[in-house]
# Entry
Amino acid sequence: MGTVKPVVQPFPGITVTGGNHAAGGCLFALRGLDMKDEMLAQPVTKWLIVRTLFLIFWLFALHSLFASQGGQVAPPLETAQVQQPPAGDHPLTFVERGDIFMARKSYEDAVDYYYRALRQTRFANAIVWNKLGIAYQQLQNYSASRKAYNQAIRRQKDYTEPMNNIGTTYFMEKKYGKSVKYYLKAIKLNPDAASYHLNLGTSYMHMKKYNESVEEYRTALSLDPNIFSQRSAFGTTIEARGADPEYYFYLGKVFASLGRAEDAVRSLRRALEDGFKDRKRILDDPDFMKISQNPAYVELMNNPPVGIKD
# Structure
């Protein structure tokens, strides 16, 4: 018989054969070994088996983790933490920063950023001048606010909002005659602005021109039925609102004259809570007579609230 040359294996004395698989690994057969060689081979064989079992353990652990995440592979940490800005984002302008500070009631900062915005436009932007005036007005610096409003009007002759706002600065200083002058100017150019009529009506009321006040309130409601429930203290139109018993009494009259009984009763209740005491005046008023059969009105008259000021 011829001589058989030995096959060189990765590990001397071990022949790896294909065949059955057990526990996810391979079955290793030993051939042509004497006792001495077999004893030397045992540590190597054990090392391969341990390594295979260790690999199986980690594969099983990874499979369990994958299944617990619903089959979704978690993104790398860097991808999860770093967020790219949305397309189209841009740095905030000075005007936008000023608007943010206005919303936060940081009026000094708003003044600063509106002024920076004006410098960028060589002080030509009427809208920003109006915003600057509102910021000064919130600081109760009425002189500075009027200067800003007038600058807005100089750059845009038909810009009615700063006209209205100048009127409001005079209203805040209890100069009602001057406030009426500017409200009328704004209304002449923009008669459909409900808030201008509301402001004019409030100034008339403080001047005790009640009939004129009621007419302006009716006009405001005809233009915007919800004008009295809105708030625009930080918008580009500032409204002058009354806050005394007479104001709510006449407001109730306006609602009653328009058939809005629920709003009329609510306003009348507020007047009574604020100290309105002339019950006969309410009962004899022709506008309140229109809602005299309304259950809420009857209940209010039978059980009037105790005045908060009492």
The mean pLDDT is 78.
